[in-house]
Write a structure and sequence with these properties.
The chain is of the alpha+beta class and 212 residues long. The chain has 6 helices and 9 strands.
């Protein structure tokens, strides 16, 4: 029987991590059309609201049910404004390992939201879900993503040479591919000690099962 992630919400001091909802379509599409998202991810450009709706209604539920991954919408606790997304993918239930990535909206960058959301997800995975390993891959020149990995306690394991395709947008709006390296990071249960004390503490977040 395939293992699956539960439908839950995770609450931190400033954020709520919850399943994506159809109401997120406009904000999600706007966020995915940002130039930094286009540069460092394989998100199609331009990113339409139809694509966002397909992700929310079809792709995300299918990934969770199949046990391959889980997509969290990250929203401000007070305003409910969409801050970003945290994704889990390539999950191996035998090894108890999964790959985590994160995207933050342009207006929300520089506030520590990515680190807060990623660490809350990691604490839930390595604690409540008894996972043994979280892997992150950051493009060699994506320093912002690397800083998040470092802040949550990840250990750099090495470089996958030429394994990443980044993207550059020309003045005419067209995109071209640029090959670069991946830096591989890992986070094990013992790595959480001392990483962001507020969230690493078991009382630092609250989970709400069976989110509807």
């Amino acid at each position: 029987m395939t293992s699956t992630f539960p439908n839950i919400s995770i609450s931190t001091e400033r954020l709520v991590l919850r399943p994506l909802d159809e109401d997120d379509v406009p904000a999600l599409a706007e966020m995915m059309n940002d130039e930094q998202v286009g540069a460092w991810t394989d998100v199609p450009q331009p990113y339409t609201e139809d694509r966002a709706r397909t992700w929310i209604l079809d792709h995300a539920p299918a990934e969770r049910v199949a046990g391959r991954g889980l997509d969290f919408a990250v929203a401000e606790f007070l305003t409910q404004r969409l801050v970003g997304v945290v994704q889990l993918a390539k999950t191996d239930w035998h090894v108890r390992s999964t790959e985590m990535s994160y995207i933050v909206a342009p207006w929300a960058r520089g506030e520590g939201y990515a680190s807060e959301a990623a660490l809350a997800t990691a604490q839930w995975l390595l604690g409540d879900q008894k996972f043994e390993r979280i892997e992150l891959r950051t493009a060699a020149d994506n320093t912002a993503s690397q800083q998040v990995a470092q802040k949550i306690g990840c250990i750099s394991e090495g470089v996958l040479r030429g394994a990443c395709i980044a993207h550059v947008r020309a003045d005419d709006g067209t995109w071209s591919d640029v090959r670069t390296d991946y830096i591989v990071w890992s986070l094990l249960p013992e790595d959480l000690d001392g990483a962001g004390e507020q969230l690493a503490d078991p009382g630092g977040f609250t989970t709400f099962p069976d989110w509807n």
